[in-house]
Write a structure and sequence with these properties.
By secondary structure, the chain is mainly alpha-helical. Helix content is 76%, strand content 2%. The protein has helices at 21-53, 58-74, 76-86, 88-107, 112-140, 146-174, 179-182, 184-198, 213-236, 241-261, 277-307, 312-317, 321-340, 343-363, 370-397, 404-430, 436-443, 452-481, and strands spanning 5-7, 11-14, 17-20.
Length: 494
């Protein structure tokens, strides 16, 4: 950072050189995104080692993953509302601290229960960063540069998909699973210090408003019940009484939530955001894209491990065409959206991802060479890179500056809910003809020699899941196409 860092109105002087504040803000949020991206990939690779050394069962290992997603989804709206009230930079920096502490606690866990609890802490920290990162970028960059900035920030998720498997493979070869969490600690300390030193609030806090505990409580309970139902349906069965009860509770709580929010003085969810057609269709497209695409990588990993017999590290490395292509395409697509709007690049990206899924349906078999698989993965990365930054830029540009926190939270909540739903639905469709024990072993990366009948059934199941995902991408493309033209607003000054 240099020996001296002088704060200016629109930038900083670092070691005698002037750096605009917008690039400082982008650097901090990029570190947070990279840390979260690497962590998610490494944890999946380490599940078998964790299960053996912690003497855990398969359900506990599932919740090592799902507990993190659950926590990072449930509190997004609440944290977004609090950030609008107390300051986005303050809450983002707190997220860095919580995530780093959670990582250290995960590393010293003595059992599966402790690990799951500390993953919940990590998830809370991730939610704080996830909500406020896009809002901070949107505030710092002028309207004609936001797409490019969000595209650069989005590269880190793709880079995490590249670095995660490589770093995870090295760590798991030289040490045990605890070091996949220790690796977050120095990155988190660096990001925390840099954030507290360099970031500042750009817009005034919302005055005269109070927190809405009823809205936050009913939404959180409804979403928890929904996510529990979706994840436990794989194990218990979708029509079991406990599962139906969870879905029923979810519906009741979410109905109460929306009814309450319509008359609350300071609602957790600002329903006025949905008066914007651009915002409505942008968040719907994001949710449907996540619903369609999140589980595709997992299904390809299941195919590479369960059908082709590759170990988890090799399977993860074979997925690299996806994040590499996404990293290449992300910034140019954001820059293109800055000049012509988000509708065209985002819609084309969704159509390309639908085409990639149809390509997999046509080519995937128990003996498919790697080249067609790599082509499909590259197409998926191309489409994802074209969609994410323009769509996020459109959603954030359509929100008023005082509501950027809750706008970002709404977008992230729908996207995360789509991710969890995608995982549950895809597994249910793809593995419907296989015994539950085989499905759970595939989930934790075990090398299972499938018999020819089961192998063919699993391939048919994957194709069926890809058809569902392709249709969802096409519907999302329809919403993206008719969203309208976003209006751009200038960043606030400070």
């Amino acid at each position: 950072m240099g020996k001296r860092l002088a704060v200016g109105q629109t930038g900083y002087t670092v070691a005698g050189k002037r750096i605009e504040y917008k690039w400082i803000a982008l650097s901090v949020t990029t570190i947070g995104a990279l840390m979260a991206a690497i962590d998610s990939t490494i944890v999946v690779l380490a599940l078998p080692d964790m299960m053996v050394k912690l003497h855990a069962d398969l359900v506990e290992m599932v919740w090592v993953i799902m507990g993190y997603i659950l926590m990072s989804t449930v509190f997004l709206l609440t944290f977004g509302r609090v950030a609008d009230m107390l300051g986005r930079v303050r809450m983002y920096n707190l997220g860095f601290v919580v995530f780093t502490v959670g990582s250290a606690l995960c590393a010293v866990s003595n059992g599966a229960t402790q690990l799951i609890l500390f993953r919940l802490v990590q998830g809370a920290g991730a939610a704080l960063m996830m909500v406020n990162g896009p809002a901070i970028i949107t505030e710092a960059f002028p309207p004609n540069e936001r797409g490019r900035a969000l595209g650069i920030n989005g590269i880190t998720w793709a880079l995490g998909g590249i670095v995660g498997p490589l770093l995870g493979g090295v760590i798991l070869t030289l040490a045990d699973w605890r070091w996949i969490f220790y690796i977050n600690v120095p990155i988190g300390i660096l990001g925390t210090l840099w954030g507290y030193r360099a970031l500042h609030e750009m817009s005034s806090r919302t005055q005269g408003e109070s927190f809405d505990p009823v809205g936050a409580g009913t939404f959180s309970l409804g979403l928890v019940a929904l996510l529990f139902g979706l994840t436990s349906g794989i194990e218990r069965g979708w029509t079991s009484l406990p599962n139906l009860s969870l879905f029923g509770l979810s519906v009741v709580m979410l109905v109460v939530f929306f009814a309450w929010e319509r008359r609350a003085r300071s609602p957790v969810l600002d329903l006025s955001l949905f008066r914007s057609r651009v915002f409505n269709f942008s968040v719907l497209a994001a949710m449907l894209q996540s619903l369609g695409m999140f589980a595709v990588n997992f299904l390809i990993v299941f195919y590479l491990q369960g059908v082709r017999g590759y170990d988890p590290l090799k399977a993860a490395l074979l997925l690299l065409p996806f994040p590499i292509m996404s990293a290449i395409v992300g910034p140019p697509s954001g820059l293109l959206a800055d000049h012509i709007g988000a509708r065209v690049p985002a819609t084309i990206g969704l159509l390309v991802q639908a085409a990639a899924l149809i390509w997999f349906i046509a080519t995937l078999s128990p003996t498919t060479p790697y080249l067609p698989i790599a082509v499909g993965l590259a197409l998926m990365g191309l489409g994802g890179g074209m969609f994410w930054a323009p769509n996020t830029s459109a959603a954030m540009n359509s929100a008023p500056l005082p509501r950027l926190g809750i706008a970002s939270a709404t977008l992230a909540t729908l996207r995360q809910t789509g991710m969890v739903t995608s995982f549950a639905v895809a597994l249910a469709v793809a593995a419907g003809s296989l015994p539950k024990q085989v499905v759970m072993h595939l989930f934790v990366g075990s090398n299972i020699a499938l018999g020819s009948t089961a192998m063919q059934a699993f391939i048919v199941g994957i194709r069926n899941a890809f058809w569902v995902s392709a249709v969802l991408c096409l519907v999302a493309a329809g919403f993206s196409l008719v969203r309208g033209k976003e209006q751009r607003q200038a960043p606030s000054s400070s």
